[in-house]
Amino acid sequence: MDIVVTETKLQPWSGDVIVTDIKLMQHNRRMQRGYWKRKPRVSVSFEGETILEHLENRRSRPIKLLRRVCEETLDSLGVKKSMVEFRWSQKAGCNCGCSPGFIVEGYDPVIDGKDVFVTIRA
């Protein structure tokens, strides 16, 4: 990936953030219909971060920086900014709070019924 997000006001993740991988994962059938229809999620992980480091850092993420990464990523996938907005949720991926991320509000056919997983290098 060649997406570079520059943010100089945030510490300790100041400077350039490079998106190294983007994966789209289709929801299973139960999540795609009726009452169980699930909104798309965007999860951002840091390259080289161990499971222990992830668990230690999960409540102290640079949300402003991750929001910019999500905007750039969704833009590169062809998602129309006017059609969607996203909100941070500590419990986006799991009820226990181990998988924070963004929940996408609105509709765009590119990510409908899918979750987006982004890996970055800071």
Structure description:
18% of the residues lie in helices and 34% in strands. With 122 residues, the chain is α+β, with helices and mostly antiparallel strands. It has one domain. It has a 6-stranded mixed beta sheet. Strand 1 and strand 2 form a beta hairpin. The protein is globular, with a radius of gyration of 14 Å. Mean pLDDT is 81; it is low at 6-14.
Secondary-structure map:
Layout: E1 4-7, E2 15-26, E3 41-46, H1 51-57, H2 63-77, E4 84-89, E5 101-106, E6 114-121
Which terms would index this structure?
122 residues, alpha+beta, six-stranded mixed β-sheet, 2 helices, 6 strands, 34% strand
Q: Percent of residues in helical segments?
A: 10-25%
- Which value, in Å, is the CA radius of gyration? 14 Å
Mean pLDDT score: 81
Q: Give the N-to-C terminal Cα separation.
A: 14 Å
The gross shape turns out to be: globular
SSE topology string: EEEHHEEE
Strand coverage percent:
25-35%
Low-confidence stretches: 6-14
Number of domains: 1
Helix-strand category: alpha+beta
What strand line-up does the widest sheet have?
1-2-6-3-5-4
Total helical segments = 2
**Largest sheet composition:** 6 strands, mixed
Number of strands: 6
Give the structure's gist in a few sentences.
18% of the residues lie in helices and 34% in strands. The protein has 122 residues and is α+β, with helices and mostly antiparallel strands.
